[in-house]
Amino acid sequence: MHEMSLAESVLQIVEDTAAQQGFKRVTEVRLEIGALSGVEVEALCFCMDVVFKGSVADGARVELERLPGQGWCLGCGESVEIQALYDPCPKCGSYQVQATGGTEMRVKDMLVE
């Protein structure tokens, strides 16, 4: 399950930021997760609950912002929204669509005390 390693990476970002900026507790972590990222959101939330125990983020609320999948169609030259990697272009039906957005996962920001 790669969501556990993703949760551990998020905690590392939170702890590194806490050490650099000197805050003691994180009350909320906001993540951006793209529709094409391959992240299983429910599994990630479960893993974050487990990983955050005993850390500066213990009990922190996790807010998720889902980003749509975006692609560039080589067939019609249009930027289109796609639901999954390797989906055909919704405008022309071409399978030559290159993902341009929605593949990312990042810590957007956090609320701290």
From TrEMBL:
GO terms for biological process: protein maturation. Signal peptide: none annotated. It comes from the Bacteria. Ni(2+) binds at H2. One of its GO terms (molecular function) is metallochaperone activity. Zn(2+) binds at C73, C76, C89, C92. Keywords: Metal-binding, Nickel, Zinc. Pfam families: HypA. InterPro entries: Hydgase_Ni_incorp_HypA/HybF_CS, HypA/HybF. Belongs to the HypA/HybF family. Involved in the maturation of [NiFe] hydrogenases. Required for nickel insertion into the metal center of the hydrogenase. NCBIfam families: hypA (TIGR00100). This is Hydrogenase maturation factor HypA. It comes from Tepidimonas aquatica.
